[in-house]
Amino acid sequence: MVRQPSINAQHRTPLSTERIIEAALQIVDGQGLGRLTMRRLGDALEVEAMAIYHHLPRGKEQLLDGLVAHVAAAPADEAATGRWQDVLRAWAGGYRGRLLAHAGVLPLVVTRRNPAALTATAASLREVLRRGGIAEDPASVAAHTLLGYVIGHAALEVRGTNEDGADRAVDWDTRFAAGLDVVLGGVR
Questions:
Q1: Does some domain include residue 65?
Q2: HTH tetR-type domain: which residues (predicted)?
Protein backbone atom coordinates (compact mmCIF):
# COMPACT_ATOMS: atom_id res chain seq x y z
CA MET A 1 0.00 0.00 0.00
CA VAL A 2 1.39 3.39 -0.99
CA ARG A 3 0.90 6.09 1.61
CA GLN A 4 -0.84 9.15 0.23
CA PRO A 5 0.62 12.45 1.39
CA SER A 6 -1.58 14.11 3.96
CA ILE A 7 -2.86 17.62 3.56
CA ASN A 8 -0.54 18.59 6.43
CA ALA A 9 2.49 17.05 4.69
CA GLN A 10 3.31 20.37 3.08
CA HIS A 11 3.47 22.04 6.50
CA ARG A 12 5.33 19.26 8.28
CA THR A 13 8.92 19.75 9.39
CA PRO A 14 11.27 18.00 6.94
CA LEU A 15 12.54 14.61 7.99
CA SER A 16 15.88 14.82 9.77
CA THR A 17 17.92 12.61 12.05
CA GLU A 18 16.99 14.80 15.02
CA ARG A 19 13.27 14.58 14.21
CA ILE A 20 13.55 10.79 13.86
CA ILE A 21 15.34 10.46 17.22
CA GLU A 22 12.76 12.69 18.93
CA ALA A 23 9.87 10.62 17.51
CA ALA A 24 11.59 7.39 18.57
CA LEU A 25 12.12 8.82 22.05
CA GLN A 26 8.38 9.62 22.28
CA ILE A 27 7.54 6.04 21.35
CA VAL A 28 9.98 4.61 23.90
CA ASP A 29 8.83 7.02 26.63
CA GLY A 30 5.16 6.30 25.97
CA GLN A 31 5.09 2.65 24.98
CA GLY A 32 8.43 1.16 25.96
CA LEU A 33 11.54 0.11 24.09
CA GLY A 34 10.00 -3.17 22.95
CA ARG A 35 7.35 -1.29 20.98
CA LEU A 36 9.88 0.70 18.93
CA THR A 37 9.81 -0.59 15.36
CA MET A 38 10.77 1.14 12.14
CA ARG A 39 7.19 0.74 10.92
CA ARG A 40 5.74 2.31 14.06
CA LEU A 41 8.31 5.08 13.84
CA GLY A 42 7.42 5.71 10.20
CA ASP A 43 3.75 5.92 11.17
CA ALA A 44 4.56 8.43 13.91
CA LEU A 45 6.52 10.54 11.43
CA GLU A 46 3.87 10.07 8.69
CA VAL A 47 6.46 8.67 6.28
CA GLU A 48 7.23 5.27 4.82
CA ALA A 49 9.56 3.37 7.13
CA MET A 50 12.11 3.15 4.30
CA ALA A 51 12.44 6.97 4.32
CA ILE A 52 14.05 6.69 7.73
CA TYR A 53 16.93 4.69 6.24
CA HIS A 54 17.94 7.71 4.17
CA HIS A 55 18.91 9.42 7.43
CA LEU A 56 19.89 6.28 9.34
CA PRO A 57 21.53 3.92 6.81
CA ARG A 58 22.36 1.34 9.52
CA GLY A 59 18.69 1.22 10.47
CA LYS A 60 17.61 0.26 13.96
CA GLU A 61 21.18 -0.15 15.23
CA GLN A 62 21.92 3.46 14.33
CA LEU A 63 18.57 4.54 15.78
CA LEU A 64 19.36 2.88 19.13
CA ASP A 65 22.82 4.46 19.15
CA GLY A 66 21.15 7.80 18.46
CA LEU A 67 18.77 7.35 21.38
CA VAL A 68 21.70 6.64 23.70
CA ALA A 69 23.60 9.67 22.40
CA HIS A 70 20.53 11.88 22.78
CA VAL A 71 19.79 10.84 26.36
CA ALA A 72 23.22 9.93 27.73
CA ALA A 73 25.32 12.70 26.21
CA ALA A 74 25.13 15.28 28.97
CA PRO A 75 28.45 17.02 29.41
CA ALA A 76 29.08 19.01 32.54
CA ASP A 77 28.94 22.74 32.01
CA GLU A 78 32.64 23.41 31.78
CA ALA A 79 31.96 27.15 31.61
CA ALA A 80 30.19 27.08 34.97
CA THR A 81 31.90 28.94 37.72
CA GLY A 82 32.04 28.00 41.35
CA ARG A 83 33.47 25.10 43.25
CA TRP A 84 33.93 21.93 41.21
CA GLN A 85 31.78 20.07 43.75
CA ASP A 86 28.84 22.42 43.06
CA VAL A 87 29.26 22.15 39.29
CA LEU A 88 29.30 18.34 39.52
CA ARG A 89 26.33 18.28 41.92
CA ALA A 90 24.30 20.34 39.44
CA TRP A 91 25.39 18.07 36.58
CA ALA A 92 24.56 14.89 38.53
CA GLY A 93 21.08 16.11 39.47
CA GLY A 94 20.34 17.13 35.90
CA TYR A 95 21.72 13.92 34.43
CA ARG A 96 19.73 11.79 36.86
CA GLY A 97 16.60 13.72 35.92
CA ARG A 98 17.26 13.17 32.22
CA LEU A 99 17.79 9.43 32.71
CA LEU A 100 14.63 9.12 34.79
CA ALA A 101 12.60 11.15 32.28
CA HIS A 102 13.66 8.71 29.55
CA ALA A 103 13.78 5.53 31.63
CA GLY A 104 12.94 3.40 28.59
CA VAL A 105 16.33 4.26 27.12
CA LEU A 106 18.19 3.47 30.35
CA PRO A 107 18.72 -0.23 29.47
CA LEU A 108 20.45 0.92 26.28
CA VAL A 109 22.65 3.35 28.23
CA VAL A 110 23.73 0.48 30.47
CA THR A 111 24.23 -2.24 27.85
CA ARG A 112 24.81 -0.62 24.46
CA ARG A 113 28.31 -0.38 23.10
CA ASN A 114 28.19 3.29 22.25
CA PRO A 115 31.18 4.74 24.01
CA ALA A 116 31.11 8.11 22.24
CA ALA A 117 28.25 9.59 24.28
CA LEU A 118 29.56 8.39 27.62
CA THR A 119 33.19 9.07 26.75
CA ALA A 120 32.43 12.71 25.95
CA THR A 121 30.45 13.09 29.16
CA ALA A 122 33.24 11.53 31.25
CA ALA A 123 35.79 13.80 29.55
CA SER A 124 33.79 16.89 30.50
CA LEU A 125 33.53 15.71 34.10
CA ARG A 126 37.26 15.05 34.18
CA GLU A 127 37.90 18.58 32.88
CA VAL A 128 35.75 20.13 35.63
CA LEU A 129 37.74 18.15 38.18
CA ARG A 130 41.08 19.14 36.64
CA ARG A 131 40.10 22.80 36.67
CA GLY A 132 39.25 22.30 40.36
CA GLY A 133 42.82 21.24 41.06
CA ILE A 134 42.43 17.45 40.93
CA ALA A 135 45.36 15.67 39.24
CA GLU A 136 44.75 13.84 35.93
CA ASP A 137 44.65 10.24 37.16
CA PRO A 138 42.38 10.82 40.17
CA ALA A 139 40.19 13.11 38.01
CA SER A 140 39.78 10.34 35.46
CA VAL A 141 38.84 7.78 38.12
CA ALA A 142 36.46 10.23 39.81
CA ALA A 143 34.76 11.13 36.52
CA HIS A 144 34.06 7.50 35.69
CA THR A 145 32.96 6.76 39.25
CA LEU A 146 30.56 9.70 39.24
CA LEU A 147 29.14 8.72 35.85
CA GLY A 148 28.69 5.13 37.01
CA TYR A 149 27.07 6.25 40.25
CA VAL A 150 24.45 8.41 38.54
CA ILE A 151 23.62 5.77 35.90
CA GLY A 152 23.52 2.99 38.50
CA HIS A 153 21.39 4.97 40.91
CA ALA A 154 18.92 5.85 38.13
CA ALA A 155 18.73 2.16 37.18
CA LEU A 156 17.94 1.14 40.77
CA GLU A 157 15.45 3.97 41.08
CA VAL A 158 13.62 2.98 37.89
CA ARG A 159 13.53 -0.60 39.06
CA GLY A 160 12.00 0.66 42.31
CA THR A 161 14.02 -1.67 44.46
CA ASN A 162 14.71 -1.36 48.15
CA GLU A 163 18.14 -2.85 47.59
CA ASP A 164 19.16 -2.40 51.20
CA GLY A 165 16.25 -4.56 52.39
CA ALA A 166 14.44 -1.62 53.95
CA ASP A 167 10.81 -2.27 54.81
CA ARG A 168 9.99 1.39 54.33
CA ALA A 169 9.58 3.48 51.21
CA VAL A 170 12.84 4.77 49.83
CA ASP A 171 13.31 8.53 49.57
CA TRP A 172 15.27 8.44 46.33
CA ASP A 173 16.16 12.14 46.38
CA THR A 174 17.69 11.88 49.85
CA ARG A 175 19.45 8.63 48.98
CA PHE A 176 20.85 10.13 45.77
CA ALA A 177 22.15 13.23 47.56
CA ALA A 178 23.75 11.13 50.32
CA GLY A 179 25.46 8.84 47.81
CA LEU A 180 26.64 11.82 45.81
CA ASP A 181 28.19 13.25 48.99
CA VAL A 182 30.08 9.97 49.47
CA VAL A 183 31.34 9.94 45.87
CA LEU A 184 32.39 13.60 45.80
CA GLY A 185 33.80 13.42 49.32
CA GLY A 186 36.21 10.71 48.23
CA VAL A 187 37.75 12.81 45.45
CA ARG A 188 41.24 14.03 46.28
A1: no
A2: 20-65
Q: Which of these three, 32, 57, 82, is where a domain ends?
A: 57
CATH of the domain at 148: 1.10.357.10
- The number of distinct structural domains making up the chain is 2
DSSP assignments along the chain, one per residue: -PPPPPGGGGGSPPP-HHHHHHHHHHHHHHH-GGG--HHHHHHHHTS-HHHHHHH-TTTHHHHHHHHHHHHH-----TT--S-HHHHHHHHHHHHHHHHHHTGGGHHHHHH---HHHHHHHHHHHHHHHHHTT--HHHHHHHHHHHHHHHHHHHHHHHHT--TT--SS---HHHHHHHHHHHHHHT--
- The tens digit of pLDDT for each residue in 11-48 reads 678 999 999 999 999 999 999 999 999 999 999 999 99
Pair (166, 117) in one structural domain: yes
The CATH number that applies at residue 25 is 1.10.10.60
Q: Give tens-digit pLDDT for 93-139.
A: 999 999 999 999 999 998 887 668 888 899 999 999 999 999 999 99
Domain that holds residue 50: 7-57
Least confident residue range of 3-7, 45-49, 139-143: 3-7
